[in-house]
Amino acid sequence: MNVGIDKLGFYTPAYYLDLVDLARARNEDPQKYLVGIGQAQQAVIPQSQDAVTMAANAASPILDATNRKQISLIIFGTESGVDNSKSGAIYLQNLLGLPRSARAFEIKQACYGATAGIQMAKEFVKNHPDQQALVVGTDVARYGLQTAGEVTQGSGAVAMTISANPRTLALSANSSVYSDDIMDFWRPLNRTEALVDGHYSNDIYQQFFLKTVHAYCEQYQCSLTDLQALTFHLPYTKLGLKALRTLLPEVSAAQQTQWLSEFEASRVYNRQVGNLYTGSLYLSLLSLLDQSEGLSAGAKVGLFSYGSGAQGEFFVGTVQPGFRDEQRRSRIEAALAQRTRLDVDQYEEWFTQWPTFNTANVTIDPAPDGAEFVFTGVVDNKRQYQRRPENAD
Ligand code: HMG
């Protein structure tokens, strides 16, 4: 029996910053951002969104009457959670009307959280093939105004249902993992912006990639020639390309061309959104599934997950016959195309206003936000969420 990703949903806020505008404001050559970093735009989160609402907005379109009843495990992967105790998964369960009998919790290991959730969900479904799991990766990537990391910010969520006989991607039984205590990126409890040793983090990422991909091939008799494409955690798309290039000398010229072409498909969405932290690898997978012209059922895709701190994991997925979903692709392309472009002054104002964690009472007007799920404020230290059925698909 195959187990893997049955359906994928994606949500990103309806506002973005064009990185040519940011480059001009920061006295940088736009080509550094567009080519050197590999990003064209970055999502900007309004006050009416957070990790919970983005997760709900990503998951809502992939739920139907059948899978809704089967979901008995809800895993909320995030490193920008909204409460130090209560998990985002409980809010999500309630907002989406999922079964009360489900086990629901939050999981954190930097950008690796969603992968930990998927692996756990895979084992769960193997033992309970009549049931499904909902796994989300949802985050707001914030480094601070005028920092080196600013160009790599972003926000959004990817939601996945994990099932037996999945329609999209069957997951390998095995994976290769590597972890070590590394201070490359972290966020102390009193801070809303991450601290990072940027160039060191790039080096560790690439080291972990080579370690895990080689270990996977050695341990599980997988040849690199078996892989039609490689997908990466993409904090910014150039880093995936740099990691991919380190592996190119190990394959033929034809395979190099193929991998590079599939990589372009796998970064179409990420280039427009920025870092999603936990959801980033899965947004890249979604981009590959939607944008690749060469992918077909049976193709094997390598997935490299990386979470600072640090944890790396390499595993393989086999593309399933139902992987193309024209409705999903049109929905994502339309959502990205219809976003409102903010100028740098507006972005800086919104950046400074968000988030509102340290307030006992605040009211937020969600009216300008067209999303189905919105954050409306805090009452007596309790966060308030709303579903607006008129905005549902
Ligand atoms: P920087 O120092 O501003 O940039 O920081 P740079 O000087 O290294 O330049 C970047 C690239 O642009 C270089 O290319 C330049 O040559 C090129 P590379 O050598 O890398 O191939 N460049 C140009 N290209 C074309 N035209 C030009 C031009 N000028 C320069 N005119 C850095 C870059 C990524 C370090 C910074 O943005 C940063 O700190 N970002 C945040 C940290 C990060 O994203 N790390 C990634 C690995 S860690 C990770 O993935 C985990 C994470 O997602 C968190 C988690 O797990 O939770 C971050």
From TrEMBL:
Instruction: State the SUPFAM superfamilies in the record.
Output: Thiolase-like
Entry keyword annotation includes Acyltransferase: yes
Q: In the Enzyme Commission scheme, what number(s) does this protein have? A: 2.3.3.10
Question: Which GO terms of the molecular function aspect are on file?
Answer: hydroxymethylglutaryl-CoA synthase activity
Domain Hydroxymethylglutaryl-coenzyme A synthase N-terminal: residue ranges: 2-165
Q: What class of enzyme is it?
A: transferase
> Domain Hydroxymethylglutaryl-coenzyme A synthase C-terminal, which positions?
256-351
Its domain of life? Answer: Bacteria
Question: Which of UniProt's keywords are assigned here?
Answer: Acyltransferase, Transferase
The reply to whether Ribonucleoprotein figures as a keyword in the UniProt entry is no
Q: Which Pfam families match?
A: HMG_CoA_synt_C, HMG_CoA_synt_N
Family as reported in the entry's similarity comment: Belongs to the thiolase-like superfamily. HMG-CoA synthase family.
Listed name of the protein: Hydroxymethylglutaryl-CoA synthase
